[in-house]
Amino acid sequence: MAPLTDRSPDPLIAVARAQLAGRPLRDAIRAVAALDWDATATRAEHERLAPILYVALRGGGAPAPVLARLRAAWMAAERQHLSAGPQLREIVAAFGRAGIETILLKGPLLAADYYSDPALRPFTDLDLLVRRRDRERAIAVLIALGYTHGSPGRSYAYELEHAPAAYFVAPGGSRLPVDLHWECVAHPGGSRATQLAAEEIWSRAVSSRSWGAAARTLAPEDLLIYLAAHFAIHHSLAGALWQLDLALVLERHGATLDWDALVGRARRWGAAGAVYFALRTVGDALGVTAPTPALNRLRPGNLRVALVERLQRGGAERLVRLEYLVCAALLDRPSDLLRLLISGMIPSPGWLRSRYDSHSVAAAYLAHYGRMLRILARGLYLQRS
To answer: Using CA of residue 205, residue 211, residue 213, residue 215, what is the dihedral sign?
Structure first.
């Protein structure tokens, strides 16, 4: 399970490798980063690795303006971590008083439990999971605490009816937004499998008293599936930070994971392909690998493997811009792919009105098909470029 120590031509992957290995980074990336320091810093900020890059380079090796820029990101992450803890505990305590258990996802949990310095793992919101039956009461608690619905481009009605989560913001930006989930391993097929996953993980959730009496965390196998699916589906297999999260969890728990149970759950939840591609990508980039027998059992058919490999050869930008094609390639079941195609091509009027927050069905259809045409045109352009 040990990460490789050779140099990577990608400076941010080199950052992640150094973090895993606990070794100095300056010599590993100086020749690459020095080619374009501004571009490297910009990408590090975008992929949320600026704090780690700053810690690696603060002893020298970077131009002073770039180092100051990275230091600002590191300090912002430090302040964020210090303020997020009390905010998260306040929400968990309020949920507990209402009889609502919550599972902490990503963000502060990963920062505190898997990173040597929590400030090295920035986040933009607080991800919390509640049971579907508790979601309306949980929303009422958030509203009582001063949060308001704030998903850009998506109505509250749409999220309750069709989405796995709803987004809430605090007035004035004084606190971090809250991403309230009631499904955990959700994928574009939108099938019963996502609800099954949300139901099953609660039986294995682990108490996390440091965050409050009502706080829980995912069991290690479920956490690995969740992070892998999140990286594959929501980030289209692109982004060094999401790979580092996965690698740190795999490094910590890989030797003691119940891989038979993990494979079985990933298949049952319709996430086997997503988990396979995520783990293989992390193994190739960071050298922290899953057992070959488990990967072989997760591996989809040759056609899907060839398609994803071709998309990955185009680089991270192409993966993100072709996210709909990547998502389709990750679906395990033909029925999920068919459901995805039907929902995209012939959506119901109710779905359209809530998705585009429109009282006019005709206007909603025009907005939807215009969006689909833009996505198709972008994909065709990228295939030719």
So the answer is: negative
CA 107, CA 206: separation in Å to the nearest integer? 17
Residues 6 or more apart whose Cβ sits within 8 Å of residue 125: 107, 167, 176, 177, 178, 179
- Model pLDDT for residues 179-196, shown as the tens digit of each residue: 999 988 765 555 566 777
Distance CA 229, CA 242 (A): 11
pLDDT at residue 381 is higher than 60: no
Give the pLDDT of residue 151. 81
What is the average pLDDT score of the chain? 83
Quote the CA–CA distance of 77 and 321 in Å, as a whole number: 28
Question: Measured between alpha carbons, how far is 255 from 244 in angstroms, rounded to an integer?
Answer: 18
Q: Which residues touch 360 (CB under 8 Å, ≥6 apart)?
A: none
The residues spanned by each domain of the chain are 11-346, 347-385
Inter-CA distances, 289 with 261, 281, 298, 307, 309, Å? 18, 9, 14, 22, 18
| Residue the block writes with tokens 């198709």 | 376
Query: H or E segment at 206?
Result: strand 206-207
Q: What is the C-alpha separation between 21 and 16, in angstroms, rounded? A: 9
User: What pLDDT was estimated at residue 382?
Assistant: 47
Which three-class secondary structure string do you get for 252-281?
HHCCCCCHHHHHHHHHHCCCHHHHHHHHHH
In DSSP notation, 135-150 reads HHHHHHHHHHTT-EE-
24: tokens are 């100095």
Bridge partners for 167 per DSSP: 179
